[in-house]
Write the structure tokens for this entry.
Amino acid sequence: MISRSNNFDFLRLVFASLVVITHSYALSGAALGDPLSQLTNGQMEFSYLGVHGFFIISGYLIFKSLLRCKGLPDFYWKRLLRLFPALLVVLFLTVLLAPAVYESSVPYLQNKSVYTYIPQNLTLFFRQKGIDGVFENNPYKYSINGSLWTICYEFSMYVMVSLLFFIRKKAFVKTVVILLFISSYILSIFHPYFLYGLFHRFALGSNHFYNLMCFFAGGMVLTYLNVPKKAENILIILSFIVIMVSIYLNIFKYTCYMTLPVLVILLGKSSTRYLNKVGEVIGDTSYGIYIYSFPIQQTLMYFFKLDTALLFMLSLPLSILLGYVSWHLIEKKALGYKDLFTKKAILTE
């Protein structure tokens, strides 16, 4: 079992908050991007760090989970419990509360898009962005919950990782993981379109897939990193310096796939006083923050027409509150059943 005496829960909380910052600009109708986007001449924004940070940590922890699991049913069961209970609740609450912000001549219960919203989004891959008549007069009218777009890519990474279960030689697994990172880096840089049709069939963007796969694979590769603590601190400093220089030289898109995973995983593996207690004190609230923040911000904009700063200041604590509730009432309870297949295996022995 992975020790929770580390900074991963804190980092995920930070990454979720960074996504809320960027969304505050888009959802309030701000003409410019967030401050990080302006500072780096559009090379990255806060949500870029947030989303890719999530995928880096996910690659690191999910690969470790695969190496420990008793079989693929056990692996997928744990992944499904992590994603779907909270997702189902947020989708249900969206449909239940949408009449409060509904503007259409068609009665709500006669609106076909109401009945397709939950099942389509539960497929992960064929997402329905909105319900006709909901938030259509907001500055950003294109989605009720724009955060959900990454979940299909996350699940795709789970499928990709699970294929490694069939490789029995550990040394060969390491080679495959390294080759996966190298190939995904090449795909991310050159963006070939020979698989465009396959991605399109599953409502995936090839560029997004290559990009997120490379960060996810970067996290996987770093499960094999084993260096002294002093060397880790040196790597953290070097990675930060390379990131700064790359941004200045406008070559960040070439170096980010190596520097960000090193920075995120080494900072996450560290155990910083107080920061390492975030998970124990409030729980792993990041997923709840991520899936609730967008509809919260859309609702605040609908009723109050806030500016960017006020939208962020009001939406972040509300998102953290719902993330807390989601973790303790839904996600944590669902994960209580994560060893179901392991227990069954023991009983049948």
Observations:
- The CA atoms of residues 101 and 303 lie 8 Å apart.
- The radius of gyration is 21 Å.
- The chain has a mean pLDDT of 93.
- The longest helix spans residues 308-335.
